[in-house]
Amino acid sequence: MQRILEGMDEYLFRMYDGLLKELKQTECYRNDSDEADRLEERYPEIRQILEGADIRKERVLSVEVQTAMKEFMEHRTNMLDDLQVKYYLRGFHDCILLMVKCGLLNQNE
């Protein structure tokens, strides 16, 4: 069983990597990624919060930084949504292929 799981880890990693490569070719994903990166560079507070830097210190954020943080999270959420849709479609595609190979679906029908 462990060997099967190890093989699945490799398969899932390769699938994840392939899906990310495909997504990076799309304009929407690239725009979201570029915009999130730009916000992260302009507002270092975003990275500090995400990494948990100085987590024990109280922090007051300006309205500008709060707005940037909200926008950053929207872009990252869009990117994750795109990836989840890709995963779903890949699973659907793989399921149909498996059913065809098993003879449960006929390609000519």
Plain-language structure description:
- The chain has 109 residues and is an all-alpha fold.
- The protein is 79% helix and 0% strand.
- The chain is built from 4 helices and no strands.
- The protein has helices at 2-24, 27-42, 44-51, 63-101.
- Helix 1 (2-24) packs across helix 4 (63-101) and helix 2 packs antiparallel against helix 4.
- The model has no long low-confidence stretch (mean pLDDT 89).
Can you give keywords for this protein?
about 110 residues, mainly alpha, elongated
Sheet-strand content, in percent, reads: under 5%
Number of E-type strands: 0
Extract low-pLDDT stretches.
Answer: none
Radius of gyration: 20 Å
Number of helices: 4
The succession of helices and strands, N to C, reads HHHH
Main β-sheet description = none
Structural class: mainly alpha
Distance between the termini: 37 Å
Topology, pairings included?
Blueprint: H1 2-24, H2 27-42, H3 44-51, H4 63-101
Helix pairs in contact: 1-4, 2-3, 2-4
Write a short abstract of this structure.
With 109 residues, this protein is an all-alpha fold.
